[in-house]
Amino acid sequence: MQSLYPVISALGVGVAVALVAQFTKGRSVTRRFVLGFVAALAVGAGFAVARPQFELFAFERSDDYAWSIVRGRMIAQDPVLLDVFALDPAIETDLRKGLLPILREQRGGMNDPAMLQAVAKAAASTFRSKVMPVAQRGSDDAVAAWGDGTVATLLAFRTVSDEACADYAMTGVNRTSPNLRVDAALSARQRAMVAAYKSSDPGNKLPSGEELGAAYEHARTLAQPPFEEADMAAFRDLKDQPKARQCDLMLRLFGAIDRLPLREKAAIYRTIMANG
């Protein structure tokens, strides 16, 4: 429907010019040309003014039209989504089902903070339910590669603010306004997640509690700077810590995990995927 509007506009202009030509027979060529030109401008302007209302009307009433608009804008911002949608048609179907009611209800611009948070929450829900359960069984290399992007992503959020860094570290949801560095980091993680999904094997199991505990204990010894007793106490009450403290502790933790041997690193990141 979006692509038809220019065609309809052009047809409208053509009909207007034809009607002017029909009703001005017998007048001079110059006069007919001027009248035709004025008619074309007037009709073209009318269609241009009406287009937003036409598109809003169509957006409210046609799911296919509305999704074509939303999908196009999302992919323009993050082309990796094409690879994500190609993994399983159910991913796009679920995302469409979650996003369209939000966009229609709030009717805000995509830069509106409330809209961004609602969209990010819906998208995160789709990824947790449709993508992560498969990606968590990816190869050790692929799962570890996905996890290795965590530090770069948190650092990107920290360039926005400590609050943005802490919020993403604690929730995994992007609630910031569009930001080139953040968007690039998140796209890189999505590419890694696609690779983990494609390498999925039912034989790749979650680690046991003992294995996971040993991996975290090993990571603790690799932290830079080393974790002190006050840091460990802060982890036990992390949600109540100041935002800057949350950001710093999570950066140090994931930096330590990145220094682990592959199998231990994959064990931790596999569990993080499973827990959403």
Calculate the mean pLDDT score and round it: 79
Shape: globular
Using DSSP, what is the number of strands?
Answer: 0
Alpha-beta content class? mainly alpha
Percent of residues in helical segments?
over 70%
**Run of helices and strands:** HHHHHHHHHHHHHH
Secondary structure tally, helices = 14
Cα-to-Cα separation, first versus last residue: 37 Å
Query: What kind of assembly state do the chains in view correspond to?
Result: single chain
Q: Could you give a short account of the major beta sheet?
A: none
Unreliable residue runs: 1-5, 7-21, 28-55
Radius of gyration using CA atoms only:
27 Å
Q: What portion of residues belong to β-strands?
A: under 5%
Keywords: Membrane, Transmembrane, Transmembrane helix
Transmembrane segments: 6-24, 33-50
Model description:
It contains 14 helices and no strands. It has 276 residues and is an all-alpha fold. Among the domains are: 61 residues; 109 residues, no CATH class. Helix 4 crosses helix 5, helix 7 runs antiparallel to helix 10 and helix 11 packs across helix 14. The chain starts with a helix and ends with a helix. The N terminus is likely disordered.
Supply database-style keywords:
276 residues; 0% strand; mainly alpha; transmembrane helix; membrane; disordered N terminus; transmembrane; 77% helix
Give a short overview.
The chain crosses the membrane at residues 6-24, 33-50. The protein has 276 residues and is mainly alpha-helical.
